[in-house]
From TrEMBL:
<dbReference type="InterPro" id="IPR009430">
    <property type="entry name" value="GvpL/GvpF"/>
</dbReference>
<comment type="similarity">
    <text>Belongs to the gas vesicle GvpF/GvpL family.</text>
</comment>
<dbReference type="GO" id="GO:0031412">
    <property type="term" value="P:gas vesicle organization"/>
</dbReference>
<keyword id="KW-0304">Gas vesicle</keyword>
<dbReference type="Pfam" id="PF06386">
    <property type="entry name" value="GvpL_GvpF"/>
</dbReference>
<protein>
    <recommendedName>
        <fullName>Gas vesicle protein GvpFL</fullName>
    </recommendedName>
</protein>
<dbReference type="GO" id="GO:0031411">
    <property type="term" value="C:gas vesicle"/>
</dbReference>
């Protein structure tokens, strides 16, 4: 594409969306984070930065810090950042960088690509032909409690002891039963989360499962697993089939699948050490 007229304007800088390979594959034909400038590549050897031009008045570090608290300003730009990375996924492998990665000139970009080149190549190879999918697994507390009440030996034994009791004894045993039911339900939920994660790992090349604090089970579906999974393109169907198996095997569980996403969870190249405007 043609070089923007303001590329050599010192009042404008380079906003970097991510790192990719220097080749002739297309870049997203979309407005950039500032609509007047479209994305293009700045290459250094076999690597390239996916960039668009932005006014440094708004995006230099001191100006950007002030605007990060302005939701009306940041929301459309954060959305544009994500949309460009998402569109790139269908065309090329990309290491996504964090929102607000800015360089004043091309020299800084070339320096970054040279100094971090080995790491960028390693990560690009790891991400090649792979997609990040998000999985959130929920459990219905009522169905979970029913499973525990029917199948847990400790709960069944204590429930049997409650039969025929009255007065204070019934109250104390009932309270103890409720506590045990809650504890065993939480334990079963943890087992469900571990089982689901292990099943998904059978079809993923990498994974990042966020810890989910197991609070007391409430009436609504409770989140028990929040994971990101890096999956080969060719394994997408198998990955979805495993999710369906999880829904059938783990009674009371349901899942939410999102993506594919820019692979933030697996982009271990350290962009925070890169030069900034």
């Amino acid at each position: 594409m043609s070089v923007p007229d303001y590329q050599n304007d010192p009042a404008w800088g380079y906003y970097v969306y991510g790192i990719t390979t220097a080749d002739h594959k297309p870049v997203p034909d979309l407005p950039g984070i500032e609509a007047v400038a479209r994305p293009f590549l700045v290459a250094e050897g076999d690597l390239a930065a996916l960039v668009s031009m932005v006014p440094l008045e708004h995006f230099a570090e001191e100006g950007l810090e002030e605007r990060l608290s302005d939701l009306n300003w940041i929301e459309p730009r954060a959305r544009a950042h994500q949309e460009i990375l998402a569109a790139t996924l269908g065309q090329r492998t990309v290491i996504p960088l964090r929102f607000g990665t800015i360089f004043r000139d091309e020299t800084g970009i070339h320096t970054m690509l040279l100094s971090h080149g080995a790491n960028f190549r390693r990560v690009l190879a790891h991400l090649h032909n792979r997609l990040e999918w998000g999985v959130r697994l929920y459990v219905d507390p009522a169905q979970l409690a029913a499973q525990v009440a029917a199948n847990n030996p400790r709960v069944r034994t204590l429930a049997a002891r409650c039969q025929g009791k009255s007065g204070g004894a019934a109250y104390l045993l009932g309270k103890k039963l409720n506590q045990l039911l809650s504890e065993e339900s939480t334990r079963l939920a943890e087992t469900y989360a571990h089982t689901a994660h292990q099943m998904l790992l059978n079809c993923a090349v990498d994974a990042h499962a966020s810890s989910v604090e197991q609070a007391a089970m409430k009436q609504e579906p409770t989140l028990i697993l929040n994971g990101a999974y890096l999956v080969e393109h060719a394994q997408t169907g198998s990955f979805n089939a495993i999710l369906e198996q999880i829904g059938s095997k783990l009674i009371g569980c349901s899942f939410q699948l999102t993506g594919p996403w820019p692979p933030y969870h697996f982009a271990s190249a350290r962009d925070e050490d890169s030069p900034h405007a």
